[in-house]
Specification:
The chain is mainly α. It contains 15 helices and 3 strands.
Length: 342
């Protein structure tokens, strides 16, 4: 299968299983990022600056949390701030995504070398962990064991005393996915599948109620990424995992076309809804599709101002009172919402 076909599978409705309806002809056709090259101008200038910036980042410092948690020698100390105060490793996942996009857009060999270096080191971590896991979450082995045993203590930005570990590892999942889909890196695909198998084992002994309790903690777009793995592998087990990681406290009101968003953390909810959309597309689930459409229409028509801002301090404000968007020093903000309807 060519990379172009893989990306078409990634973006359209293509998985087969007993749960899914027959494949339908996609309404949109996507072209590869590597089919487009920028000519000289402000966009090319911005791209060149971005490429330079990516190469100036120290990969060994980003890898440090992963190596530490895998029991391997660190080549350098971690970056500071969020990278050594609890959210250790999340930027490494973002970095892989950035490298993958840049290489697809430029064919720059230095970027490819850096991407390969990141992936080879993360593979060493995965091999050392021995169970498919890759992560820089401090004390991750302990909390994942607790969660697998049903000892779950969750709140909006905490899980078993750690700072959003599910959100953290979602960045690694997304990075591996992007490395495969955008550059055709087969090793990244294998690593992604192994890490997703680890997630299946993580929750296999948990009840639905326990999983939903776990999902109270911010978890990024894990449901979307697991659905992507289902599309990549054509294995419905990963789609089932994506459904398990879908937060019903958010989904169920949307299914009923009820807007319960006021006061909720926008940055947390939007990735969940993008996952609902991905699952709906793959499974041809009209109920979930309708829920997502309702969310989109509510946010765009009832909660957004002229330039697109839809939240203040990352939270949805009341639909009948937009005063905080004028007076707050932390808003209005645009929590990115890109759901394509044609």
């Amino acid at each position: 299968m060519t990379l172009k076909r893989i990306i078409t599978y990634f973006t359209c409705m293509v998985i087969c299983s007993s749960e899914l309806s027959a494949q339908t002809k996609p309404q949109l056709n996507y072209f590869d990022l590597n089919d487009v090259r920028l000519l000289q101008g402000p966009f090319k200038h911005a791209q060149d600056l971005d490429l330079k910036y990516l190469l100036e980042i120290d990969a060994d410092r980003l890898l440090a949390p992963f190596l530490r948690e895998a029991g391997l020698p660190q080549k350098k100390e971690s970056y500071t701030n969020w990278e050594n105060t609890g959210l250790d490793g999340h930027i490494g996942g973002h970095y892989i995504s950035a490298l993958a996009h840049m290489y697809a857009a430029t064919d720059d060999l230095q970027i490819k070398k850096r991407l390969d270096y990141m992936l080879s080191n993360l593979k060493s971590c995965q091999d050392a962990n021995g169970n498919g896991y890759i992560g820089g979450v401090p004390g991750g082995k302990t909390i994942w064991k607790e969660i697998a045993q049903g000892n779950i203590q969750a709140s909006g930005f905490s899980l078993n005393g750690k700072w959003v570990p599910l959100y953290n590892i979602h960045k690694t999942y997304a990075g591996l996915r992007d490395a495969y889909l955008l550059t055709g890196n087969e090793e990244a695909k294998k690593m992604l599948i192994k890490m997703t198998d680890w997630a299946i084992i993580l929750v296999q002994q948990l009840s639905e109620q326990q999983i939903q309790e776990m999902l109270r903690s911010e978890h990024g777009g894990l449901n979307e990424t697991f659905a992507d793995v289902a599309a990549i592998t054509q294995d419905p087990a990963y789609l089932a995992l994506a459904r398990q990681f879908s937060h019903h406290e958010v989904l169920d009101p949307l299914i009923k076309h009820q807007d319960k968003l006021t006061g909720q953390h926008a940055n947390t909810q939007i990735p969940k809804v993008l996952g609902f959309k991905r699952i709906a597309d793959i499974a041809q689930d009209e109920t979930w599709e309708s829920a997502v459409r309702y969310f989109w229409e509510s946010v765009v028509t009832q909660r957004s101002i002229s330039f697109g801002g839809n939240s203040v301090s990352e939270h949805f404000n009341p639909t009948n009172d937009f005063s905080k968007m004028i007076h707050s020093i932390e808003g209005p903000e645009l929590a990115i919402l890109i759901i394509c309807y044609v």
